Fold:
Amino acid sequence: MTAPDDKREASLHGRIVLVTGANGGLGEQFVLQALERGASKVYAAARTPRAWADARIQPLSLDITDADAVRNAVLAAPDVDLLINNAAIAPQGDSLFGSEDAARDIFDTNFFGTLRVANAFAPILAANGGGTMLNILSSAVWVSIPTAYAASKAAMWSATNGLRFALEGQGTQVVGLHVGMVDTPMAAHFDTPKSSPASVVAQAYDGVAAGDIEVLADEQTRDLKSRLGEKAEEFYPWLHGMLRALLGS
Ligand SMILES: NC(=O)c1ccc[n+]([C@@H]2O[C@H](COP(=O)([O-])OP(=O)(O)OC[C@H]3O[C@@H](n4cnc5c(N)ncnc54)[C@H](OP(=O)(O)O)[C@@H]3O)[C@@H](O)[C@H]2O)c1
Structure:
């Protein structure tokens, strides 16, 4: 067992955190590790909030596709200084060649829902010293998987960069987290190697504490990002080969 790293554990000391999609997967880890690192309160926001055993965790009802629910969340959580935009959907059968309605549903959650929460909480972050917005993106931002999910995350990557620029003046740290497959319900039907949610969240919080603006939470994602400068004629054949090996197709 490694010795506790006091500095790391104290890295969120006194902070007030809101996590969307908090009930399971990465969201649950964001809630629990925030407390381990010294956060004083965590709003665990979910469409159907669950009970939590720790009094520092405040369940909050929030469907990010519902504008009224987002307004109510802002009223209920005026003290937030770390917003974690974690909620998203990745329906099975998602395809860029599928129904337009299905693609719109994905964008309604992953892009418009996330952007709605980001914009609604930006003034709250400003009022609480600038704070931090952590947007959970994906290595799919740079991978040409033909899904609306990948396209929605790419759009949210662009929006994350735009938000960083827009919120710079109010002192908000805007962080994009990119990662490949993670062992959560979302990726349960993929039979490939996956990162543990605990490790991804630990790296994300290390990045927040260090003042980073981007976190690459697995080796494959770091490798992928490092190759983006390659000529397209070299990059895409490599990428497609890597994807075929990963997806077994
Ligand atoms: N797992 C991966 O391989 C992987 C890879 C890269 C990035 N990510 C990203 O990591 C984040 C967390 O995903 P996960 O892997 O932990 O999957 P997950 O277990 O499916 O968690 C997603 C959460 O989002 C919530 N959610 C969906 N639609 C919502 C809405 N309209 N309003 C509020 N909450 C909503 C879900 O809530 P309900 O419980 O109500 O359904 C669920 O708790 C997502 O942004 C995902 O895109 C995941």
